[in-house]
Amino acid sequence: MSDTPITKPAKALPPKAPPRVNYLNNRDLLKQIHLSKNTYCAYLDPKTDHQYDIILPSLDKINQRTVAEARRNRADRLKRETGVVQNEKKIANTDLVFRITCWEHIPIAVPKIPKALAKKKKIKEILIIDEEPIDDGLADIIDEPVLDPTHIRVNFPPFYHYRITEEKEAYLVGKSHWRGDLISGEYSRDHGTMTPELARMFLKLCERYATRSNWRGYTYNEEMRGQALLQLSQIGLQFDESKSQNPFAYYTAAITNSFTRILNIEKKNQNIRDDILEMNGLNPSWTRQNSNKAYQKPGEVTVLDPAEFQAALDKEEI
User: Model-level pTM?
Assistant: First the structure.
């Protein structure tokens, strides 16, 4: 026998699971939404005034508590971007940027005439009835209330950006839906654009959602994806960062509604087509036939005695 030691074969290591790929996350979505909104805005200094630290409903909300919260938000953001821990107490108040939601610089929209009133107006213009004007003596006395006018529809909630001085006085540093100088510029809502990266994210969302088990089997899956993509392009920037930090759920809900809308439309068209086929004595779709079978009730079952059955056969009654 040889003196060489017997070596046992090494155990095979279990295969490692592939790393999980996170194709989209809220942080990247929020970054692209912010960059897209900046294309519609004007700032005193585009490099430093575009990044807000806190969102407030009005300028009166700037106080000691909101300033401290803005410092914490700025310290957390700088830590994520640079990896260096920032002391929030060392951040100067003059470095903070406050986003204030407001509609002051958005023009007033022309009130629309309801369809019913417009129809009545057309009928009166066709008939051309000459009537004597009625003199209302109370017209000069009664003061009719004026309704709050609505503003022009924009693609995302408008806002101002403010900074504060050492004396804690706020001054304007940025406007949304604005082109040119903050003072001599003009309102504009179509000069900006969506970033290509955000558009690719929308495409990826629609593609991944369309592969789910409850949607991928439909023949009109492409139409569902197109409708969802169109919906995202319309409401993509309407996400309000002051109410939520989860744009992924916001966009997923919009895609679900778009897919469901197309599904309901196709079902309605299929029902109309099946009704026409049945009216003309033709066979409808398999979906209609199977649904009719599910609602059919079985007939009554008669149990016969074997002797009576044989006697009936002999008499040729059956």
Answer: 0.73
